[in-house]
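Justification of resources, computational component.

The compute hours requested in this renewal are based largely on the per-chain cost of generating structure records like the one below. Each record pairs the submitted sequence with a full C-alpha cell output. That output is archived, and it is also reused by downstream analysis tasks.
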Amino acid sequence: MKFYYVYIVKCSDSTYYTGITNSIDRRLFEHNSGKNPDSYTFTRRPVQLVWFETFSDPTQAIMIEKKIKGWSRRKKEALINEDWDKLVQYSKNYTEYGKNGSSTSSD
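The structure output for this chain reads:
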C-alpha cells in the first residue's frame, strides 16, 4: 500500500510551509538542499518538520493539504501543538470571536 503525507515545516524565518509527499525523508532533503530555487522554502532554509499526518487515499491527502494551507498561523500552531480546544476555537467565525479568539459579545 502506498502512503501519502501532509506535512508542515517551520522555516528559518519562523513561517510555515504545508505540503504533500509520498516520502517525508526525501521531501525534507529536497527542501533543505535547495533543489528548487523557485520554491517558497529556498530562501528560508533550513526547514524543520513540525507536523505530519499519513493517508492512504491521495485525494483525501490533497484535500487536507489545501484546507491547512488556508488556515491562519495560530490555527496551524494549534494543530502542531495538538491543542484541540484552541483548534476548535480558532475555527470559529472572526466576526463572532475576533482575531484574538475571544468572544467579543458581552453576556
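The beta strands are 4-10, 16-21, 48-55. The chain is about 35% helix and 20% strand.
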